[in-house]
Design goal:
With 683 residues, this protein is of the alpha/beta class. Helix content is 41%, strand content 15%. It folds into three domains: 321 residues, Thiamin diphosphate (ThDP)-binding fold, Pyr/PP domains (Rossmann fold, 3-Layer(aba) Sandwich), CATH 3.40.50.970; 175 residues, Thiamin diphosphate (ThDP)-binding fold, Pyr/PP domains (Rossmann fold), CATH 3.40.50; 128 residues, Rossmann fold (3-Layer(aba) Sandwich), CATH 3.40.50. It is built from 25 helices and 23 strands. The strands form six sheets. A seven-stranded parallel beta sheet has the order 12-13-11-14-15-17-16, with helices on both faces. Strands 1-4-5-9-8 form a five-stranded parallel beta sheet, sandwiched between helices. A five-stranded mixed beta sheet has the order 19-21-20-22-23. It is elongated. The structure holds thiamine diphosphate.
Length: 683
């Protein structure tokens, strides 16, 4: 019979040897960190995490985030040893293991459920995709915000059951990344006491000692952010770690940072080279020596000694099973008392929307003076927010400009966990990472700033796209038409760069009604994020009796024809659609038949049938003009090699918006001229 200490040690060393063997077999990856952090992972999972391996989607489970995603083998080993069961695409537990030993043997190989970095949707038990340092920690802030929101919104007397804790393992690299500072500052401000980052201060990164580039006192930094800071000392001291994690559980007013000191590739004293410990397998000899240091005999690989799986089952497994079962039966009692709230909670979990959620959306009458699309977006957002209580979000300090403050919903703050207007402060990157965390907990999150500052948030947008999270970005001030603020505030290349991101749907509405439709689409779209590109300036509300209905859903549509086969196609997005409408009338006076195509979303258009696309942009009309106050990149796809693109392939200008537009060639005359040149070419 082994004693408990011995089983702890055996389990920890099994995590280490699995990690070493997997990296060795893959001949790539980072072996050192999972080896060093094995006791930390073990302690969190086996002693604290409320997680049921047989019910991995239990809504109130604690979340574990491996922000140092390069140490992915740590997580895969834990998932394997604790017997986490697979969940299929329909969210059903299949009874099969989430991570088999074969998956571990195929670490980093095609088709393995153990990819190089943890990926949401590939491996059950991975709560968020991590790998780009800083993203995991920042995402965890949104998870913790969501937990508090869910607890506040759905909790009832005697049913204080909807929250959860979020545990994160972070590395030096996480702490160096700017986004962790933004996120920690926000978490401290909000007093997220359900959030615990365990910072592995091993003082080594890829290029060598952290002394090369990182000398601040992280503990003091976090104290200044308003966190509780605990030092656990040596990462191998399970009891010290247990003590500080217990202190986290008892802290009610602030997030906790636990600092542990580990030594990379623990157990491998011969390993001096930090680059080797990071970017490369240990080598067979090193593996053998390390295993010997753990008292591991023989040369067998991927060994899970007897007793380890049982030990996890009796610890994490039994505790989690009991908690999730109790929670589920309590939820049934909740359902009896509060059937409406229970149904709503389930709707949140499954990504549904209340029936009739879009009934109150505004409709705009034709209006030549017009409405800024950001204003119409604000009105649409408020209408949706009234129907969908779990739609929440905010701006990086530009709420009044982005029109994202929702009326009558209160501010989310340390005192008010259920507010729905979130003041993210001037922290675009952490805002979008937090939005990812909220979306991962089922909430519908939106995040707003000027389009030009989407660059500041791009890594989080990329992860939202990769994870297919239904986050909505409200990007206003979407062209050089912004005017006086000048080139620093005038987006140029942003639309092209966002369109280049797989999985992100970009929508640039032409008028108020297209902006409303953009929201209708975005809310119904649960397969990935949507970025809206909205004007600061008023744009005429298109007369929908005269022209086509705002068909945002199909990405592009014929707004108006001039009868018969068109001589020229005028295609545009956003504020430039109006120029095309006016140009069409002038062209008609010159007996040139122009078709105006509003193209709010390339991605949505590309998803349509060939027939539909052909019906909008017929291949036998080669005379084509595209108009968009943004970089030209990509428009060749629609105008062809000989088409004409009126665009902005330079930085903007500081002047009133109308003057900038005129100066950069966005006039009706210029569109008419380009159209005539296109038609002439072909005569
Ligand atoms: C944003 C980002 N930049 C660079 C990398 C490449 N990278 C992987 S691990 C690492 C540094 C590892 O050092 P540390 O964060 O201290 O982790 P540990 O030494 O504990 O493994 C780097 C730079 C990355 N994953 N993400």
């Amino acid at each position: 019979m082994r004693g408990p200490d011995e089983l702890d040690r055996l389990s920890i060393d099994t995590i280490r040897t699995l990690s070493m063997d997997a990296v060795q077999r893959a001949n790539s990856g980072h072996p050192g960190t999972p080896m060093a952090l094995a006791p930390v992972g073990y302690c969190i999972w086996q002693r604290f995490l409320r997680y049921d391996p047989q019910d991995p989607l239990w809504p109130a489970r604690d979340r574990f985030v491996l922000s140092a995603g390069h140490a992915s083998m740590l997580l895969y080993s834990l998932l394997h040893l604790s017997g986490v069961e697979e969940v299929d695409a329909a969210c059903a537990v299949t009874g099969r293991p989430a991570v088999t030993l074969d998956d571990i043997k195929a670490f980093r190989q095609l088709g393995s459920r153990c990819p190089g970095h943890p990926e949401l949707g590939v491996t059950t038990g991975v709560e968020t995709t991590t790998g780009p340092l800083g993203q995991g920690v920042a995402t965890s802030v949104g998870m913790a915000m969501a937990a508090r929101w869910l607890m506040g919104h759905f909790g009832r007397p005697g049913f204080d059951m909807f929250g959860f804790d979020v545990y994160v393992v972070a590395s030096d690299g996480d702490m160096m990344e700017g986004v962790s500072s933004e996120a920690a500052s926000l978490a401290g401000h909000l007093g997220l006491s359900n959030l615990c980052w365990v910072y592995d201060s091993n003082r080594v990164t890829i290029e060598g000692s952290t002394e090369l580039a990182f000398s601040e006192d992280v503990a003091q930094r976090f104290e200044a952010y308003g966190w509780r800071v605990e030092r656990a000392g040596d990462a191998n001291d399970l009891e010290a770690l247990t003590r500080v994690l217990r202190a986290f559980g008892e802290t009610e007013d602030r997030p906790t940072l636990v600092i542990v000191d580990s030594h990379i590739a623990y157990g491998s004293p011969n390993l001096q080279d930090s680059h080797k410990a990071h970017g490369a397998p240990l080598g067979e000899e090193e593996v053998r020596l390390a295993k010997r240091a753990y008292g591991w005999h023989g040369s067998d690989e991927f060994v899970v000694p007897e007793g380890v799986v049982e030990h996890f089952r009796d610890g994490l497994g039994a505790r989690g099973r009991e908690a999730s079962t109790a929670w589920r039966s309590r939820f049934e009692r909740y359902r009896e008392s509060y059937p409406h709230a229970a149904a709503r909670f389930e709707m949140v979990q499954t990504g549904g929307l209340p029936s009739g959620w879009d009934r109150e959306m505004p409709v705009y009458e034709s209006d030549a003076k017009g409405v800024a699309t950001r204003s119409a977006s604000g009105a649409a957002l408020s209408a949706v927010a009234r129907a969908v209580p779990w739609l929440l979000g905010g701006s990086a300090d530009l709420g009044p400009s982005n029109k994202t403050l929702i009326e009558g919903c209160g501010d989310l703050s340390s005192e008010n966990a259920t507010g729905r207007n979130i003041h993210f402060g001037v922290r675009e990157h952490a805002m979008c990472a937090a939005a990812n965390g909220m979306a991962l907990a089922g909430l519908r999150a939106y995040a707003a700033t000027f389009l030009v500052f989407s660059d500041y948030a791009r890594p989080a947008l990329r992860l939202a796209s990769l994870m297919r999270l239904p986050v909505v970005y409200v990007f206003t001030h979407d062209s050089v038409g912004v005017g006086e603020d000048g080139p620093t505030h005038q987006p140029v290349e942003h639309l092209a760069s966002l369109r280049a991101m797989p999985g992100l749907t970009v929508i640039r509405p032409a008028d108020a009604n297209e902006a409303v439709e953009a929201w209708r689409f975005a809310m119904a779209h649960t397969e990935g994020p949507v970025a809206m590109s909205l004007t600061r300036q008023a744009v005429p509300v298109v007369d929908r009796e005269r022209y086509g209905a705002p068909d945002v859903r199909r990405g592009a549509y014929v707004l108006v024809d001039t009868g018969g086969v068109p001589d020229v196609l005028l295609m545009a997005t956003g504020s430039e659609v109006q120029l095309c409408l006016e140009a069409r009338e002038r062209l008609a006076n010159e007996s040139v038949k122009a078709r105006v195509i509003s193209m709010p979303s390339w991605e949505l258009f590309e998803r349509q049938s060939r027939e539909y696309r052909e019906s909008v942009i017929p291949s036998d009309v080669p005379a084509r003009v595209a108009v968009e106050a943004a970089a030209s990149m990509g428009w060749e796809r629609y105008v062809g090699r000989n088409g004409s693109v009126l665009c902005v392939d330079r930085f903007g200008l500081s002047a009133p918006g109308d003057d900038v537009f005129r100066e950069l060639g966005f006039t009706v005359e210029a569109v008419v001229r380009a159209a005539l040149a296109q038609v002439d070419r072909r005569r």
